[in-house]
Design brief:
The structure is a homopentamer. The first copy, chain A, has helices at about 25-30, 35-50, 85-95, 115-130, 135-155, 155-160, 190-205, 235-245, 245-250, 265-270, and strands at about 10-25, 60-65, 75-80, 100-115, 165-175, 210-215, 225-230, 255, 260-265. Chain A has about 280 residues and is an alpha+beta fold. In chain A, strands 1-3-2-9-5-7-6-4 form an eight-stranded antiparallel β-barrel, surrounded by four helices.
């Protein structure tokens, strides 16, 4: 029997850019109240435009978060239908007067990704049973058929709205490629089994946390980015701690920096610029 | 017999933010004495407010420490009842005139955590004996019952006052997930045994050092933060050196940067701004 | 039988320099429109000169890309017939008025490289069969004969034009020299086999992505640089993800930072300086 | 027989702070000669005060070194009887006019440490033979008795004068806690044996180099700091190279950054500020 | 038979400092032509002085290189008869007006080193055959006799002139001290064998590249620095790539950053400051 492919089939959706900035409060304070109001109006209207998205598909959205700690003060999160769209947003933000107070600290470029471990295994087996060879036109057509069917079925998850939850948790991660333990030399069946167990835990948290996985192989310095959205940030810790004992995480997951932010609605950004997280300040 | 959970049950308390800053002495020196006094009064009154805490619970407190070495000059330590509360404090500090002299160097976001290794093992065993399955509503109710009972019993330790000791030692740490030695693939019983031995050492130092463990999985770049408080800083060295030979530390502990600070009482910060650690200067 | 050489024969072509810069938008905004136009004209004419290349060979070319994310805003990519030529270009760019807005972030120095795994094995075997000893004048002559023949045959690939595709993906990489898994202690035959399988995947993507491999052993901090050019950036992810399961990548590849850019034609740079990625803005 | 403690008994002496600074020569040049002389006088008198030390014990001393290379231009080395004393010195230095030209690059906080491997083994064995249990009051009294006796006997080494040699070499180090080779899981007897062999080499260099070991577990980012003092810097290389083949160094030592400095006597600092290492300039 | 020493005997020669700087072109452009000429004259005359060297021995020399890439623009390479001499040169450079445009990026401190693997083995064996013990006065005298004889014989290589080649390649390196593969626990005979094979490759490149090895154990953050000098930079890649398959490099070598520079003759530096690499510009 011919060897089956090792890489699972993935579906890709929105292009995603995370931008983390420090805010230069001392420069900001030196501006007149009138100037501050103008800057606020400019950025709030730009955000409103981005948040609504453009075009029919509403694939283009942006959101702002107030970050906790020295790794940044503001996180701009953009979902777009292309990388060039994301780059144009960067250029637009750079042209604003707000940009004078934004000191770039970090960013992350990725695309929404759904890994089809179970469908891939079935599809590869079915194609191989038909006597098709990997890489042949018929094989590729069989894979494409799956991709298109699933992409339609999962359009909502591929081009998601940015969840409205109060808190965001973002972190990048890799699968380990160690000398002794190497995700990429495990068999497809083993990886599928481990990913399935991993997913079972996530499912138990479905009611309290929304998760968006983005792939960044070839795009940024880690293989995946993970965004979690929840009303209660403790859920981030509970979920990730429980998962850390999973075989796939315990043995094969390597983590980058963690960023925690609080969602700023369009109006809240103007408040934030006055040093208040929310209008009620009832936090 | 069904497999028992791998993750111990944890209790969570206060949200905690460490902020490490360099102080821009040269900018400070250029201000008039009158301006310096105004800045001092503003920050001392803000600190007094934070130190008292707000609301009934007195869960909200802050303290300031003079750091030794180039990693920072001032450490602001905040205990709060929420992450948004911590973020609001950051915004308030940014609005002060003192902020013009504070250069962010580092920070750490975490929550007070108590790991219930022994209770977890007993509870899991008891629930499993009743024939309950992990993740079932009855199982979860059994776990919740433990969490609530213990949270009440340990409220003092979950929402602690910031100890009044002269010295603080802060460092973050991970449990090793190496290719050959991996904490997260050890059995619950083994981890419980090692944590118990570890705790025995800590107990011998109970009279001379106060320890507050905070969890930061999902919140910051290490898994835990450790704060030690003592009148004599040598105790930090003695304790950590002795523990380093523990199995759990020797084999499974990875350490980040260490920060050593000296507590500044509210009035002492004004002195500090004049270059004196204490009024008596009798150090 | 005498031991054969371990290193494959490589052919070298163009000298290549990647320059990654942040752009200081705030300083730029402070210039008058007239000054901006002058800067634009200066740099566009310099780029046009570089893009055309100089001399008969047209070996000297340059291209500019708009980078996504905080790792840089502009990427200047230079192909030249010598390292001193690249250094002269650096000096020329430094003399422009644009240079006042360019903040160096990263760079990469390398030469186009073709690794002749298959020819090397054959040539080494043939020379050894003739009874020649490695390092003898006759042996060296035999190798040189291959190098010259292949260099002529592959001149197009050794001194390539910069592909005109919309997107670029650049990253440096090493072959692992671990304690247990070490590329450089594998036999030539094993390395040849793994490189062959690796190449098979690349071939399947030949229609949608152009790849230029540059060698940087002795020149920069990684062993190779990889440039991929495509109209659709998703292809970068698909290609690299599929390759990651290859034995040579799964076990032996270590990756540096990834940079994603969008090609700016000469005229587009002037637009970019006004905050627009393309004239149509139809992205 | 009960298990004996794993940690050797250590004696602690002076608190030590290394401060590494770059010197801002361009800012310095802009000052008038009169102002420079004033700054020189201020710092020379401060240094003279620190060098003399304060109080009866003469435990408090400071010295200045001219550093070679980009890691710093000046090293201030302070020995003090407490961490708060060191922090007060930092604050005093920050108040000087010299501080305007000092750019912090690095620092290291530690205490003079003597590890009593041989006495520890004997004492533990003797206490165990008496049937005492580790951690019991009688056991602790037995250990304390040793500590006090040895501290008196070794007071000179615990509170040393800063050696007057021309050159200093400072570096921090760790004992390896690897997955396969781990200092902290070796037996006391094995560690004692290796430390003894290590010490034999040091003894052969006793005539040409003075060594001060400081412990920094719990205080700074490495476990120990090593200061070497010699008239001929080649001795640093000879000593450390020979030791690198020792079992304890070859297998278990991890090294941080190395700093090389040249002692500036009080008067020499004023010369240094005029760009001369020594008055004779006969170097 | 008594154990022989593990460390080979080394000879040491010139003290060497590499200084890597970025050049602040924008600040430079703001100076008047007259001022620029004065700065040029000052530095060219200083370089001429350094290049000639001082004293009888002509051990003191300096050279300047134009660096390629963001890691630096200028490399100052100094050979001197002492570390204090190098530090004095640093101070002299800092006093020049050129210093205002030099932004320190990196440096490296080391001494020219010749490792006498073969002589060491023979000498150790001969001394042991005479019944002498390592560390005894007779043993040390025997070693010293070798050192002095060889130092005289190799004076040219210990105090070399800076080669006049067009290109320089500098990088630091370590010998691996891994948990499984450790250079420092290999036997002297094994190390001697591997170093011998390593040297054989170098010998084949002797006509096209000059190599100067400097030792930096105890002086800087890596164990050795390597300087290669060649007319054709491709030779650096060929040599290092071929060596990478050597046992000693493949298994035991760890490399730091690579720096590539182009020699600027004294007059060329003045041209360089006008943005030209050479007067002919025929590169």
């Amino acid at each position: 029997m011919p060897e089956l492919p090792s890489a699972p089939i993935t579906l890709e959706g929105s292009s995603v850019l995370h931008q983390m900035y420090r805010f230069d409060w001392e420069a900001w304070k030196q501006r007149s109240n009138e100037e501050k109001r103008e800057v606020e109006e400019e950025v709030v209207s730009l955000l409103a435009k981005w948040e609504k998205g453009t075009g029919d598909s509403a694939k283009n959205q942006s959101a702002v978060f107030s970050l906790i700690g020295h790794k940044g003060d503001l996180l701009f999160l953009h979902f777009n239908d292309s990388f060039s769209g994301l780059n144009q947003i960067e250029l637009e933000l750079a042209q604003t007067r707000l940009n004078a107070f934004l000191i770039p600290q970090h960013s992350y470029l990725s695309v929404v990704e759904l890994g089809l471990y179970e469908s891939s295994a079935k599809t590869y087996a079915a194609l191989a049973e038909k006597g098709l060879t990997q890489g042949s036109p018929e094989w590729d057509a069989g894979v494409q058929e799956l991709v298109q069917r699933q992409s339609s079925a999962m359009a909502q998850r591929l081009f998601p709205s940015i969840p409205a939850a109060k808190y965001i948790c973002f972190y990048p991660m890799d699968r380990r490629r160690g000398e002794a333990r190497n995700w990429y030399t495990e068999t497809m069946a083993e990886r599928q089994r481990m990913m399935h167990e991993h997913g079972m835990i996530g499912r138990r948290y479905a009611g309290s946390v929304r998760q968006i996985i983005t792939g960044s192989i070839g795009f940024d310095d880690w293989e995946w980015g993970v965004d979690l959205f929840a009303e209660d940030p403790l859920v981030f810790k509970k979920l990730i701690y429980e998962m850390r004992f999973d075989e796939v995480s315990a043995v094969y997951a390597l983590f980058g920096q963690f960023f925690i932010g609080i969602r700023l609605q369009t109006g809240d950004l103007a408040l934030w610029l006055r040093g208040k997280l929310t209008s009620s300040n009832s936090i």
